[in-house]
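Supplementary Note 3. Input sequence used for the single-chain structure prediction.
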Amino acid sequence: MIALTIVGILAAIALPGYFAFIQNTRAAQAVAQLQALRAAVYLYYGDLGRWPREAPAGYVPLGVQQNLPKNFSFVGKGYVLDYDNWIALHRMGQAPNGTSTVVGVSVISRDPRFLERVDRLVRDATFTKISRTKYTLEIATMDGF
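The predicted structure, written as discrete structure tokens, is reproduced below.
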């Protein structure tokens, strides 16, 4: 009985740390994918002088695939990536959540704590909360890069 109690106490101490480690790893993976997609979009712009067209969440924008790593996925465990081209929305005065971002890469998740973890990991770019379930990594604004 004492051994079971000790094992239970140890599990109660170790399991929350393990689950936090798993969530932090998934958030780091999402950030790496956001950065890879951002780089692929910049390469597309460098090659063609224009941004890729809007694509639905979870789908690769046309022409960007060749700039992405092999086996790149827009769908991760608990999240989906979304390439956003909001140039037309800005021109109509309908920017999402008042953001200045016109081209970006978003991560969508139903888990707000996961999105907060991703937000804490993004250091080298503007990362904007668009909604409770969507945060966007800025690629370009109406003023440029």
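The chain has three helices and five strands. The chain has a mean pLDDT of 88.
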